[in-house]
Specification:
Length: 169
């Protein structure tokens, strides 16, 4: 585990590196194309696409938060999170996720949902979304849909998650 990751918002110069990271992590262009489509969508929020870079400054990890809604309440969707295969399990992804969540909180965002591995995301504070009455319109394992209140003073709202149009769901 490397604690020396430098995290920062994605810049225009990072766009090709982010695409390479996402392609390498997922092995198909679907998620990389999604990131590109989200950049052009109204769901994109400047500063919430975060890279993790090593001491040389080259990005090796990426986490993206974009606008979604839980019912009618504005929230964020964490997706995708990607790390170059040779840097996986080094803390780069976790550093990018933590930095993205901090940036979202600093912007006054309150809620985040993620569809992901139930043993990975709880370490960032995510819990089972169904416990808060949060659901999606497609079939997913209950434990894979998770939610987080960035501000403990605001309870997670219940409702169906509405993703940005580029997600196609």
């Amino acid at each position: 585990m490397n604690d020396d990751w430098i995290t920062r918002p994605e810049t225009t110069a990072d766009v090709p590196a982010v695409r390479r990271i996402v392609l390498a992590a997922f092995g198909t262009p679907l998620e990389a194309d999604l990131v590109d489509a989200l950049r052009a969508d109204e769901a994109w929020i400047e500063g919430l696409s975060v890279v993790a870079a090593g001491p040389d400054g080259a990005p090796v990890g990426h986490a993206l938060l974009t606008r979604c809604h839980i019912g009618e309440v504005p929230a964020l969707c964490l997706a995708p999170v990607a790390v170059l295969p040779e840097h996986q399990r080094t803390g780069a992804g976790g550093a990018a996720v933590r930095a993205a969540l901090r940036a979202a909180a600093e912007l006054g965002e309150r809620f985040v949902v993620v569809l992901g591995h139930p043993s990975y995301y709880p370490k960032f504070g995510f819990g089972r979304a169904s416990a808060h009455g949060i659901s999606v319109t497609f079939d997913v394992p209950d434990e894979a849909l998770m939610a987080l209140a960035l501000d403990p003073g605001h309870a997670l709202p219940g409702g169906v998650v509405r993703y940005a149009e580029p997600f196609g769901i």
